[in-house]
Automatic annotation (TrEMBL), chain A:
Residues 13-64 form the Acylphosphatase-like domain. InterPro entries: Acylphosphatase-like_dom (IPR001792), Acylphosphatase-like_dom_sf (IPR036046). It holds the Pfam family Acylphosphatase. It comes from Mycoplana azooxidifex. Gene3D superfamilies: 3.30.70.100. This is Acylphosphatase.
UniProtKB/TrEMBL annotation, chain B:
It holds the Pfam family VanA_C. This is Phenylpropionate dioxygenase-like ring-hydroxylating dioxygenase large terminal subunit. The keyword Protein biosynthesis does not apply. Residues 93-268 form the Vanillate O-demethylase oxygenase-like C-terminal catalytic domain. Keywords: Dioxygenase, Oxidoreductase. GO terms for molecular function: dioxygenase activity.
Length: 92, 280
């Protein structure tokens, strides 16, 4: 069970699309930090970024909404969220 | 993406009912244009002597600085017998034309901006609804939007839970389908046609197709103008003035699903006139 308490989640967010932009990973880190979420980038290539994120579900929802738009030079096709296994969810 | 993708779109430039041979001097995307009727009474739009494409639909004259690749979007209800068609007129707003559409799509502001008309406290919750980009029509749609409204329409006599559907068929146009109090099973249609005068200035031309046999035309127009004038004060004070396509400054929430879908759709098409591309 990955739900740490009723409102806090630890999830893996998989972002697919034309995400081959050097600006996107730092953008995700900044956006997560603004929301006070703990995050760790687990994978990044031209078509897929995987980030583990921990925090209140409403704020993870907001990160997902923000990432679906992203910076102007990327195009996000889909975002899927799955429970992450173990860990503390990286750094805020 | 191309920077000029919006050039080839249709835009409202005036009311058909106000066409005359003297013409109306206005602007489209920063370029001065003249909207007049020719000797045969047909609409004619020119820019520095160049004749622009024209079509006449939904009570308005439409034109384009470029070469529209498709016909103006369809509103089937415009041909439905029994409806009253209302030219609301024009409201000039010092804001991005994209901001004007985005505001129209936002129901979360109803209780705070249109207090005791389209919303009221404590009924501020936006229930979950469905948003999609319909690939076949290439339009943004939001459906199953439900909200409590003290006076949903001019014809409403009390508060009701209103259901909405929003549709964005063109970058500066939105069509709202709304519960029709006097005729359950039908939808009232309220549109927002926005003429982009400049990137941060627009003329908003609302138009309606309603089932309402009781209200006077003056009352229908007054009701809708009241709503849009309330919106204007909000729109003219939004910062940044252009609509951000990078959400770095404005952090969207679940209630902003339609706005996010609209911005994604703009971004995908390169519809960036009136948009801020990089968060500042």
């Amino acid at each position: 069970m990955t739900r740490q308490n009723q409102d806090h989640l630890f999830e893996r967010m998989t972002i697919r699309g034309a995400v081959d932009s050097a600006s996107f990973v730092p953008w995700i880190r900044r956006h997560a930090a603004k929301l006070g979420l703990r995050q760790e980038i687990r994978h990044a290539d031209a078509g897929r970024i995987e980030v583990e994120v921990a925090g209140p579900v409403e704020l993870i929802d907001m990160l997902e909404m923000g990432c679906s738009l992203g910076p102007i030079d990327v195009w996000v096709e889909t975002i899927t969220r799955t429970p992450a296994a173990g860990g503390t969810g990286g750094q805020p | 993406m191309t920077q000029d993708a919006m050039i080839d779109e249709w835009y409202p430039v005036g009311l058909v009912s106000q066409l005359d041979s003297f013409g109306r001097k206005t602007a489209l995307m920063g370029e001065p244009i003249d909207v007049a009727s020719d000797a045969d009474g047909n609409a004619r739009v020119t820019a520095n002597g160049r004749t622009l494409p024209v079509c006449v639909r939904y009570g308005h004259v439409w034109s384009s600085l470029g070469q529209p690749q498709k016909e103006l979007f369809a509103i089937p209800e415009a041909d439905q017998p029994g409806r009253r068609f209302v030219d609301v007129g024009v409201v000039r707003v010092r804001c991005s034309p994209l901001r004007a559409v985005e505001n129209f799509l936002d129901i979360a502001h109803f209780p705070f901006v249109h207090t005791d008309i389209l919303g009221s406290e404590p009924h501020t919750e936006v229930q979950n609804y469905k948003v999609e980009i319909r690939e076949d029509a290439d339009e943004v749609w939001a459906t199953q939007v439900k909200f409590y409204q003290p006076q949903a329409a001019r014809s409403a006599s009390g508060g009701i839970t209103t259901e909405y559907m929003y549709r964005v068929p063109a970058p500066t146009c939105s069509v709202l389908y709304k519960t029709c109090p006097p005729r359950p099973g039908e939808w009232d249609v309220i549109t927002l046609f926005v003429q982009p005068l400049a990137e941060d200035l627009c003329d908003v031309w609302p138009w309606m197709a309603l089932f309402d046999d009781e209200s006077s035309m003056t009352d229908l127009i007054h009701f809708q103008q009241t709503i849009f004038l309330q919106d204007r004060s909000i729109l003219e004070n939004q910062i940044p003035r252009l609509l951000p396509l990078d959400p770095g400054m404005e952090i969207p929430t679940r209630a902003d699903l339609t706005s996010v879908a609209y911005r994604r759709w703009l971004k995908r098409h390169g519809y960036t006139y009136g948009a801020q591309l990089v968060a500042q």
